[in-house]
Amino acid sequence: MPHIKLQEGVPGMRALQIYRPETAEPLNQLVNILLRGPSTLSRGERELIATFVSSRNDCFYCQTMHGAVAAYHFGGNENLVAQTKLDAEKAPLTEKLKALLDIANNVRQGGKHVTVEVVDKARKAGATDLEIHDTVLIAAAFCMYNRYVDGLATWAPDDPEFYRERGERLAKQGYFSFARRFTALSQFIISAVTRILSHRPSWMPKRRH
Length: 209
Hints:
The chain contains ten helices and no strands. By secondary structure, the protein is mainly alpha-helical.
């Protein structure tokens, strides 16, 4: 049960976006840039980093949702996502991505756990400075997202099909759509109510203070 009053039946991050739409937009902008913006890392690779970190943080909602997005980008390969979460070193990934996942795991444990050795290992595997930077930022950001979702005890559905359907939609549309639609709807409702109240017919009783 959520620690605060959230809209019933709305899962995870979506419930928090509805509760606090002012913070929803910048949070979505950040994740959209990190996971979908221009990069030499594919969208699937970046989603896999987010999934891996969320898995290590034991955040069911985030690891399952972003795992579904990652699987979609990898042609529906859910086994790859499951293998990566279980043991990234044994998963059929490039050496570069394995090294970046190692960096991400160290970030998850604490910023000072990222050593020269793990960074050098990633460089030797072909990672650029920008890829290393973005891996650290994705890992750090998802530690925040995981703690945000779990820290308020948001509801997470168990149905795998829910995540597949939502994951495909996020993979295609990105992370702007929901927050923008909700904000626009809220503004429309407020504007409509304001117009109605400002043109109250004479027969309507006046509000008592």
